[in-house]
Amino acid sequence: MIRDSFILAKRTVTKMFRNPEQFVDVTLQPILMTVIFVFIFGGAIAGSTGKYVEFALPGIIVQTIMFTSLTIGVNLNTDIQKGIFDRFRSLPIARSAPLFGAVLGDIVRHSIAITVTLVFGAIIGFEFNTPWWHTGLAIVVIIAFAVSLCWVSVLIGMLARSSGAVQGLSFLIVFPLTFASSTFVPASTLPTWMQGFVSINPVTHVIESMRGLLTGNTGVAGDTLTGQLLWVIASCVVLFAVFFPLAMWAYRRKI
Amino acid sequence: MTAAIEAHGLIKHFGKTKALDGIDLTVETGRVLGVLGPNGAGKTTAVRILATLLRPDGGTATVTGLDVVHQAKAVRRTIGLTGQFASVDEDLTGMQNLVMIGQLLDLTTAQAKIRARELLEEFDLTEAAGRLAKTYSGGMRRRLDLSASLIGRPAVVYLDEPTTGLDPAKRDDVWDMIRVLVKQGTTILLTTQYLEEADALANEITVIDHGKIIAHDTPQGLKRQTGGQTLEVRPTSVDSLPRIRELLIKFGTREPEQPAPDLLAVPVADESALTHLVAAVAAEKISVAELSLRLPSLDEVFYSLTGQKKKDDSKEAAA
After folding, report:
1. Which of A143, B131, B241, B257 has its CA 20 to 30 A from that of A70?
2. Chain B interface includes A10 (CB < 8 A)
3. Which residues on chain B are in Cβ contact (under 8 Å) with A78?
């Protein structure tokens, strides 16, 4: 089962290197987002691009990972439509191996996206003001969040009729979650009613944890780094507890 | 001989549709069974049950003596699957696809590579091994699909409409490969919409429609039941039609039909009718644009088996 999952994870990774559009998702796209936000909006939002890159880069990483983690549903749906899952199912492997393989493969994709964004950030002036292991912890935090969130996408991928529908629905979830947070602007600049949502939005806490761990600037949304991390852990546990069983139920029903 | 595939009273419902309504199938080891039927007849459903992809709602089935429901994993070790479903990954190369499946079948990476190379060679795909499967032509795709299902040297192979959508030359290639499998002693269950294909490959043919078996026979027996072959003649000039009709009445077993304004067709008892007709046409110096002997189409098989014209079921989902 574990060996099969790794073999199938390798499939996800191989496909990423073989297909420009999937590779762009985790390399060029975060770079492009960084360029657009830092150099175009940076001056207007934070007064200077140098200040803004410190603020925005953690947010851009989180946003990239959120979008990447939701493609799993699209990919699984496509695999089922195209009959690739029927091939897997006719082989003597565990039923869940293709699913866990996809999740494992995505962790590799996330790691590439994070590395690319951090390296590019460093090149354009992002300063890591914290011990090195804080950066490591930041990476663990965001990947843990992605792995908890991906079950939402798996569930949608199993229930929706077409991969296009999966994509549409996933975006409908990710867009408000990433933008109605402190990804690009400090929460204090938002209207009061929205701040209510932003403060309970788990994405806000993931971003604040990342900021705290990468730049040392904690408490932007009014909580300590430990407080933010606890929020993140709680969000991961809730997301996982609710959506993992649902996703597995939908997966077993279909597979 | 023992039966490699044995199914009794298979039933499967999809909502209110009875996809399978009590199907019995037996395939002896090393033999080829052709399952013939139109779209939506239940062919694919039957294969999916025998391949452990679907659970039957009723009935039992064993493959090499193993129960498809209770010993599904053991069954999966003995079968290979090719067809409309059970596809390869288009975003991987031919080689990568085969190696991955080999690894999933518990081969080591080195063994999987050796086996993949063997199959690519055998199926004439060595040159395309390093290309993404999505760049393959239709015929190459089928060959890759087929090799993917043979990696584990399965004792039983299911071929679900292996040639649908292929042009005649590519179809012949696939047929040749299937014949090689038969020679190696593989048991094959083949579904098809073409009597010609079942006739060319199968030892026995089961005809199914609306989830029920409506005929089971050897190809020869089935052809006898369904009026055998049809002789078709298209004269260069329509003025010759009346004379050709007279000749066809003489050689045919039934009243000739006129499927097109300039075409006459009649069922014949055997191939000798063709020789006789050619001789007669030549003797009378009638100019003929087309003269052919063909097996009955699926429509005609159904017509003679059920006595009624088949309605167009092609839009029905091939469930």
Report:
1. B131
2. yes
3. none
CATH number for the domain harbouring residue B274? 3.30.70.980
Inspect the interface and report whether the beta carbons of A84 and B87 lie closer than 8 Å. yes
How many structural domains are present in chain B?
2
Torsion sign over Cα A145, A147, A148, A150: positive
B216 plus B239 within the same structural domain:
no
ipTM of the complex: 0.84
What does the alpha-carbon distance between residue B219 and residue A231 come to, in Å, rounded to a whole number?
A: 71
pLDDT value of position B318: 41
Mean pLDDT of chain B: 86
Q: B81–A87: do the CB atoms touch at under 8 Å?
A: yes
Query: Which residue in the block uniquely carries the two structure tokens 């010759």?
Result: B240
Is A84's CB within 8 Å of B101's CB?
no
pLDDT in tens, B96-140: 999 999 999 999 999 999 999 999 998 889 999 999 998 998 888
A142/B319: higher pLDDT = A142
> Does B105 contact A92 at a Cβ distance shorter than 8 Å?
yes
Question: Tokens representing A140?
Answer: 């663990």
Query: Same domain for B52 and B166?
Result: yes
C-beta separation of B87 from A84 below 8 A: yes
Residues of B in contact with A10 (CB under 8 A): 100
Q: Evaluate whether residue B195 is within a structural domain.
A: yes
Q: Which of the pair, B211 or B304, is modelled with greater confidence?
A: B211
Quote the domain boundaries for residue B50.
Answer: 3-220
Q: How many helices (H) and strands (E) does chain A have?
A: 13, 0
Q: What is the pLDDT of residue B83?
A: 76
Same domain, B204 and B236: no
Residue A83 near chain B (CB below 8 Å): yes
> What pLDDT is stored for residue B102 in this prediction?
94
CA–CA gap between residue B70 and residue B56 (Å, rounded):
12
| Alpha-carbon span B100 to B272, nearest angstrom | 52
The span from the CA of A142 to the CA of A67, in Å, is 12
Last residue of a domain, one of B220, B247, B274: B220
Q: Is 60 exceeded by the pLDDT of residue B310?
A: no
Contact A69, A62 (CB under 8 A): no
Looking at the structure, do residues B74 and B191 belong to the same domain, yes or no? Answer: yes
Contacts of A79 in chain B (CB under 8 A): 89
Q: What is the pLDDT of residue A233?
A: 93
Residues B33 and B63 in one domain: yes
Would you call B135 an interface residue with chain A, using a CB distance cutoff of 8 Å?
A: no
State the residue for tokens 């009624």.
B308
B19 and B148 fall within a common domain = yes
Higher pLDDT, B84 or A82: A82
Report yes or no: A18 at the B interface, CB cutoff 8 Å.
Answer: yes
Closest by CA position to A56, among listed A181, A192, A227, A222: A181
B111 touches A at CB < 8 Å: no
Q: Is B316 inside any structural domain? A: no
Residues B286, B215: one domain? no
Higher pLDDT: A97 or B219? It is A97
Same domain, B153 and B208: yes
Nearest-angstrom CA–CA distance, B93 and B131: 5
Which segments in chain A show pLDDT lower than 50? Answer: none
What is the arithmetic mean of pLDDT over B66-88? 87
